[in-house]
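Render C-X-C chemokine receptor type 1 in 3D.
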Amino acid sequence: MGEFQNFVWSVSDEMWFEGFENFTGMPPTGEDFRPCDTDADVLSSSALVAVYIMVFLLSLLGNSLVMVVILSSQVTRSVTDVYLLNLAIADLLFALTLPVWAVNKEKGWIFGTPFCKIVSLLKEVNFYSGILLLAGISMDRYLAIVHATHTLTQKRHLVKFICMGIWVVSLILSLPTFLFRKAFPLNESITVCYEFLGSDTTKWRLVLRFVFQIFGFILPLLIMLFCYSFTLRTLFKAQMGQKHRAMRVIFAVVLVFLLCWLPYNLVLLVDTFMRNHWIEETCERRNHIDRALEVTEILGFLHSCLNPIIYAFIGQKFRQGLLKVLAARGLISKEFLARHRVPSHCSSSTIASNL
């Protein structure tokens, strides 16, 4: 540890602390250390804190409403709704960590090692579970539409076990973060929360990054691309108009996920290649990558509050379910509810139409 501290303290703490704060950033040690002059951050720490708090509040409100609407519709809840309920839980738990990271952005890590482990675990588990749940939805739709298989798509108790399995897998994939993260003092004034594995920290953090990218993005993405390509082909070939309209919410959710997280993962992949010396690293490229990581990570964080907005604008039955909840609590009149009632021939699923 002393050798590590000598490397760290050999540069200005203020110069690289902001970049190091990125939870996937690498420690400036060994061959990864480059004494480059860093450019100013794209956003000031105050602006980042404001973004974190805004996303936290929007996610807290939106995902709580989604959970209330789905849970209040016991009779009409579909298999897809069970997936979307778990997705809302994942987004909500992820967002609950944002105030902690906002404080960390301003003051460094002031919460100690146990809280460092817990908050980091929550963050990782809910990222993994989010994309794995989307992959599960894609497989469910593939079986239901392409193969007309109803065993898994119609029995809700089975999908509950599938969701439980996804949470368990997400927890297992996140365990290295929980085990190796700690509050590490850089000097008397700055402490950070990150994985520390002794003299092999740099090597093992690269290994963990590969695991993160393969299981947390690439494999689920390939599953979604395979399933939805065949699902779309079947829908268009059979001219299943109602089914096609019903899939709009699901496609929108997947598209927004990709728009939010694909840029970050692509930049992270380039950064990984550079740190493995597969791409030549220069100070200019390092600054460009660091700025890109900062911007794209914020875009990824923003994703946790966007799904409820998709449901509100595209999901007709979600709007109807929300109005019923509001009417049941006396917040809107029954006359207003009747004027906005969805026709009875529409599907019964809370969010995802008749899927």
